[in-house]
From TrEMBL, chain B:
GO molecular function: cytochrome-c oxidase activity; heme binding; metal ion binding
Lineage, highest ranks first: Bacteria, Pseudomonadati, Acidobacteriota, Terriglobia, Terriglobales
A Pfam family hit: COX1
Domain Cytochrome oxidase subunit I profile span(s) in chain numbering: 29-537
Compartment list: Cell membrane; Membrane
Lineage: superkingdom: Bacteria
Listed transmembrane segments: 46-66, 86-111, 131-150, 170-194, 215-237, 257-280, 292-313, 325-343, 364-384, 396-422, 434-455, 475-499
UniProt organism field: Granulicella aggregans
Described function: Cytochrome c oxidase is the component of the respiratory chain that catalyzes the reduction of oxygen to water. Subunits 1-3 form the functional core of the enzyme complex. CO I is the catalytic subunit of the enzyme. Electrons originating in cytochrome c are transferred via the copper A center of subunit 2 and heme A of subunit 1 to the bimetallic center formed by heme A3 and copper B.
Protein name, entry field: Cytochrome c oxidase subunit 1
NCBIfam families from the UniProt entry: CtaD_CoxA (TIGR02891)
Gene Ontology, cellular component aspect: plasma membrane
Reactions the enzyme catalyzes: 4 Fe(II)-[cytochrome c] + O2 + 8 H(+)(in) = 4 Fe(III)-[cytochrome c] + 2 H2O + 4 H(+)(out)
UniProt keyword terms in alphabetical order: Cell membrane, Copper, Electron transport, Heme, Iron, Membrane, Metal-binding, Respiratory chain, Translocase, Transmembrane, Transmembrane helix, Transport
Amino acid sequence: MHISPVMWQFLVKWLHSSALFPAEASTIAPWTDALYFFLLAMTVVGLVLVGALIFGFSVMYRKEKSPVATQIEGSTLLEATWTIIPLAIFLVTFVWGALLYFRIYNPPTNAMNIYIVGKQWMWKAEHPGGQHEINALHVPIGRPVQLTMISQDVFHSFSIPDFRVKREVIPGRYSTVWFQATEAGTYHLFCTQYCGTAHSAMIGEITAMSPEDYTKWTQQSTSGMSLAQNGERLYAAMGCNACHNGSAAARGPNLAGVYGSKLQLTNGSQVLVNDAYLRDAILNPSQHITAGYAPIMPTYQGQISEEGLIDLVEFIKNLDSNYRVKQTLVTAESDQAAPSTPQPIAPQQGPGANTGMVKQ
Amino acid sequence: MSATTHHTIVNLPDQSTAELPKRNYLNNEHGLLSWLLTGDHKRIGILYLISITFFFFLGGAFAGLIRLELLTPQPDLVASDTYNKFFTMHGLIMIFLFLVPSVPATIGNFLIPIMIGAKDLAFPKINLLSWYLYLGGALFTLIALVQGGVDTGWTFTTPLSTHYLNTHVITAATGVFIVGFSSIFTGLNFIVTIHRMRAPGMTWFRMPLFVWSNYAASILMVLGTPVLAITIVLVALERTLGIGVFDPTKGGDPLLFQHLFWFYSHPAVYIMILPGMGVISEVISTFSRKRVFGYTAVAFSSVAIALFGFFVWAHHMFIMGVSNYSALVFSLLTMLVAVPSAIKVFNWAFTLQKGSITFETPMLYAFAFIGLFTIGGLTGVFLGSLGMDIHLTETYFIVAHFHYVMVGGMLMAFLAGIHFWWPKMTGRMYPESVSKLSAVVSFIGFNLTFMPQFILGYLGMPRRYHAYPAEYQVLNVLSTAGATVLGVGFLMPLIYLAWSLKYGAIAGNNPWQATGLEWQIQSPPLTENFIEVPIVDHEAYDYEWLEHKTANEVTTVG
């Protein structure tokens, strides 16, 4: 079934202006809506059919017109019909829904990543460039954005209805969702999983901006320290570099370039090093011993906040040589801040450009 | 009104001479103790009916308060914590104290032994025990309420319920735990009774479909409810002792709770709807004077729903980070479980074909059921469809969907059944025209309440929200207005049914000229149901047998 783009636009505009239909503001929204209209049509047809049968039979065979009933056992043919046709329709919706699901939950590889921490009752967004936001999220349009999310306490759920995306934010586990905004504007952000007293106040605003506006925003809102830089500090402060310093005699495995690689563990399994693995390996090291190393790393459970873990993960992600790790080890006694590194997102950022977006 | 007598099948005895049978289960014994210590399944059914009616209106009062709060976008009627307690109590009471026991424990208790020609259930004392367990569980729920309520939501989601709330979680959970055993015992009793106590000649495929659907629901009760009990115990242990099964900081898995909880709570949906479907089969057949179209398909579809119902629980968790591939499997199984429901709907519709249809109140409720259940079922397909579920889950779309199934489906079926068997239970007719009005009022009120919630859900309004953005107000006002109408629709039967206890017309044995064994005995029945063991020599819904039956009694052996 094909609908002309003009008709589609008209329909969507009309529905939206009557406040009965949400805006279509992401690349996924038209896909979701297409399935929705198919399902709606299925419901209407099904309802009209059942309604017509009941109404029709009620009129035709009411007692006045049909004083004596004719007994009918059943009909295998009819029953097969209304088994197979609904089954076929349901299977179509299954396949269609599955395709959409995989589209929504498998991010493109070039997506930019933003971290989200949910807690009773606020959303914190952490941009890799060091922009921190609360109950707000600024994103560029026309570029895929992946959110890596975790909850600090109970289940939350991150929902942007106008983008048609939603994902549970789970304590102790990263979950991800991605979208690509298409229209500049502000959109509702809801927590949709009941999370206690102020559940309905755990809301925020998504601001989708043109790429130019977005660049301007990132430059004006950075805290001056990228997440990786925060992570580097923490790395030194927690003494990680005492073991993970990359030297041949080190007691911990070399972390440079480890992100994205396949790692052999002492228990024989092979794992892909991703955000979730790094986080787990910091919190429960004994479960994640790299082959060839002794299980000597202590647990950091309860010692590092979720934001701190994100900083560490982001640092290890971007660690491609051990040069600075060793350097930090040498200068660890001095209380100098770690020197700044080039920023991937805010290229013209001056040192210490702290413009008040730091609400952490 | 002699012209209208043609339009009805109601066949009442001459009211000037008729009176209730001198001896029946209601006046066989007197005094409160004769009720509280009874082993009679009919009296226990009545005890259940009174209890669940009380809790239905209590739960309904909370629904009213919720809708009143949502009249305005601002959180202005009560504090957020209070609102959270409202929807928690509404859910707990309606699900565990009304919907789960509604049809099986009242109508099922009263009728299943009679329908299969038995004197009582297999274990009368266990039957009474299950009512006391229900009361015990209800008492704990009320204690939790009086002490200040509980705000976990009816789902007791961890770690919110275990680590973050200071309300009476343990008390309420104990209530649910105890009520669960009441349901297990009812299911057990039904299964044994249906297997072992059928009258001579009452083969499996001569049983009324109401018995089949309650049998399927009983299997779910017996196999599913223990998992809920285990889950509740784990929540309690986690909350009091911190055992860490669900706590990620101790190596536990919060998703495990979701798996365990929904392993019961999804089949529980079928526990709630299957017995209602049984009522609809009886009512549609009786008022179209026709055997149910495709009896075997309808019977087996109940069993199919019960079997498939156990393997779809993770469709409540599609957005929770379960593996994409397991989501695929659960979505597919969800689509399969929708098919038997579709089969039932079409079989009911075709039962009407070439019938001789009349439109008494139970039939109107049954029509309402079919329409509303069709909407509820088809919107369930939206939610079973993976990509669609992402946008719709946890919004008002879900709320509308399950109210269409639970209220539009089960409650309408319950009311159809109560009106249908009211003459049998009490010996008196309910007033026909006012009850027709109440069916229509409920239908209109229901759609006005819940149809706007589908639209709100697609707009993205999350469920369990105390406050909401102003642009959603119009639809919320409509919904609240509908709830008012719906409330009137539900209060009317309470009043006129109570009235009919004293002033209703004497019903006689078989006012509907129905075929079931229960209609061949006196109304209200004797304590022992049958004077002699009935011998069944015909199938269910055999209207020709009914016509040719010479005497007013079922065939009996001396």
